[in-house]
Amino acid sequence: MVISTQKQLEPELMDVVRLFEGAEALEIGHETFSSDSVFENIVRCGGREEHYRDEDIARTPLEHKALVKRYAKLSLYRFLSAFFKKTLPWGSLTGIRPTRLAYQQMEKTGEFASLFEKLLVSEENTALVGRVIEGQKGIYERKEGNVDLFVSLPFCPTKCVYCSFITAPIAKTRQYMPAYLDALERELAAADPLIQNLRSVYVGGGTPFAIETEELGRVLKAISLLRNNGCEFTVEAGRPDTFTPEKLNICKEYGVTRICINAQSFSDRTLEAIGRKHTAADVLQAFEMAAPYGFDINCDLIAGLTGESLGEFKHSVDTAIRLAPANITVHTLCLKKGAKLKEETARLADGLLSDMIAYSREKLTAAGYEPYYLYRQKYMAGAHENVGWARPHKACVYNIDVMEEISDNLAVGANAITKKLYPAEERIERCGSPKDIPTYLAKTDALIETRHQLFQTKRDA
């Protein structure tokens, strides 16, 4: 039976119908339901009245389609929530960027809280979004010509079990390093005429500090030829076992303003379980080594790591706060395709994760940090989120621009994705580089030409 042609459903439910089109029955939990009974329950759960009340704010066919999907998801969520007797912290809200929806709603109605309440988002998360928007004031800017530069260095000492990036142990990829650096230099030189107002630079990976000092210097020198306005300049230095005074010196020499020390945890047991080859003491040493240089430092933590207890996570939060970096980012573990953890684990239990998230919010707030960006991913444990916290006046420009998609992103290197924004049309065009290094090296010149055409088209428009 093809349900969408057999049943007469409200238009806003059709997207839900298409999810199960052709299905005779659905397995929910340990029970099996006929498709007809599921849809009858969904219809009874509603969503239609809210949709009709919001019709007046749908100014375009695209906005109408968004409303259709919104209330189809709300109906489905209500049905499943009633069946499992369970609610989620973000309610029926899906998507990576809750704050972007909040901004869009504020442009139409002047506030967003009532919409989030309608979508059954928790009061705590609605308040969190409001705090993020407040934390972005003075940085958030949608302006033609703004651009951020991303440089990919996809090299790591080892691969962590939760990692889905293309990175491989550098011992296996070092053979490509000379050609890769040549390609980056060509891409960066070609990017010069495409950049108008450079907002920030971000060198990510991978672990950029995994390469040799002289190799890192080549990349930073090529970037410095483009960065002539003193804008924010981040190097995601990464794992503490790659830190050396020489690499910190070269960063200072070329004007880096911000580095990332990705601790993930301050539990040695956890670090070993996730495939890290360093200890918590190494993280502390990296902070001590970086202190004289005056960089703003971001420290990453992950809630829900393999077998980690609430007490261990609390210790990591407390230790990060004691180190007093400019930023602390609290990620929620998720099962990503391509990660070893995904292959070994079918599903992550919520467990104590909500308590971990609540503890981090309470302690970071008490220590004077404020949330300034957040995003969500598929398959996150407990349906939670990743949140960046900053001390006053220390929010990262790059993170805000990228997560809110308010600026062009010019990205070079393997697996880098350039984004061109067309604000008037509310659309984005993308130009992605190949993920694997050999293919990227073979197509570098073609990528340069494609990116040039994309940026030039917008300038000529």
Provide a descriptive summary of the structure in words.
The protein has helices at 3-6, 14-19, 35-45, 48-53, 61-84, 98-109, 113-118, 123-135, 170-173, 177-191, 213-224, 245-253, 268-273, 280-290, 310-323, 340-344, 353-366, 397-404, 437-442, 444-460; strands at 25-28, 31-34, 146-152, 155-156, 168-169, 197-204, 232-238, 258-264, 296-303, 327-332, 370-375, 386-390, 408-412, 417-422, 427-432. The protein has 461 residues and is an alpha/beta fold. The protein has 2 domains: 1-83, no CATH class; 146-412, TIM Barrel, CATH 3.20.20.70. The protein has a 9-stranded mixed beta sheet with strand order 11-12-10-9-8-7-6-3-13, with helices on both faces. The chain has a two-stranded antiparallel sheet with strand order 1-2. Helix 3 packs across helix 5 (61-84) and helix 11 (213-224) packs parallel to helix 12. The longest helix has 24 residues, at 61-84. It is globular and about 60 Å long.
Any key phrases for this structure?
461 residues, alpha/beta, TIM Barrel, 2 domains, 20 helices, disordered N terminus
- Per CATH, the architecture of the largest domain is Alpha-Beta Barrel
Low-confidence stretches: 1-13, 336-349
Query: Could you state the CATH homologous superfamily of the largest domain?
Result: Aldolase class I
CATH class of the largest domain: Alpha Beta
Brief summary of the model shown:
This protein folds into two domains: 1-83, no CATH class; 146-412, Aldolase class I (TIM Barrel), CATH 3.20.20. 44% of the residues lie in helices and 18% in strands.
